[in-house]
Amino acid sequence: MMDKQLLDSFARLGLPMFVAPGEALDANATLAGAVRAKEMRVWEGFPVLLANAAEDFRFSFEQVEAQLSENALQLLFRRLVLVSLAVYALYDLSFPWTVKVEKELSAERKTQLAAWKKSLRNDRPFGWAGVEFDPRRLREMFELYFEQTAEKGRRKREKLQEYSLEYALSQVFSPKQKELFKKRLDGLPMTKTEQEYYSRTVKKKVVALANDDLHTLARKLLEQ
């Protein structure tokens, strides 16, 4: 049974079945915990954990191994790294650290990695004594990570666009004018006074902003 702190750490490194806390994260300890967990669903998500650890945190292979005192656990960690490299290859992913790791592999490990890459491509289970990885489950886990990453990026872009629009509106309209602009845009009802003010002041600015020639000239000035 894994403790809650370890499960939370898995979540913060990208495994979607756990809920992440707001506490500081030790990526090396999390990866060591994943090795010791001896649960296939965690090992199937190890490529996600490793990719996030290497990209976003002060990750060190040596520090992970230092937290795995038994030789058997260190060997297991190296095997899970090989599984991760095979998964990355399936999606044509390459990171500076993966290139370095692959160059430093022994001839035996390179042969093993090549065999696992082939098994993944051909949808054949692979692993070692007592452990078997299902290519379909590995793909599903990693693709879910991709989907979540893409969604996070989309939300970030939308928020930046929203901030950019708010800033632009604030440069043209006063707070009250901006409020009426949004009301009109959303089709919300306005009082008679608001309608008169909109027609007298806000609408003129909207018409000017919609002028193609003015837009072209503004772009030209920005490019100078």
Terminus-to-terminus distance: 64 Å
Helix content: over 70%
Q: The biggest beta sheet, please? A: 2 strands, antiparallel
Order of helices and strands: HHHHHHHHEEHHHH
Tell how many strands the DSSP assignment holds. Answer: 2
Q: Globular, elongated, flat, extended or rod-shaped: what is the shape?
A: elongated
Instruction: Identify the strand order in the major beta sheet.
Output: 1-2
Mean pLDDT: 84
The value of Rg in angstroms is 27 Å
Proportion of residues in extended strands: under 5%
> What count of domains describes the coordinates?
2
- Helices, by number, come to 12
How is this structure best described in words?
With 224 residues, the protein is an all-alpha fold. It has 2 domains: 4-144, no CATH class; 173-223, no CATH class. Helices cover 74% and strands 3% of the residues. It has 12 helices and 2 strands; from the N terminus they run ααααααααββαααα. The chain has helices spanning 4-12, 27-37, 40-44, 46-56, 61-66, 71-90, 96-103, 107-121, 135-172, 175-186, 192-209, 212-223; strands spanning 126-128, 131-133. The protein has a two-stranded antiparallel sheet with strand order 1-2. β1 (126-128) and β2 (131-133) form a beta hairpin. α2 (27-37) runs antiparallel to α4 (46-56), α4 (46-56) crosses α6 (71-90) and α6 (71-90) packs across α8 (107-121). The longest helix has 38 residues, at 135-172. The radius of gyration is 27 Å and the shape is elongated. The termini are far apart. The mean pLDDT is 84.
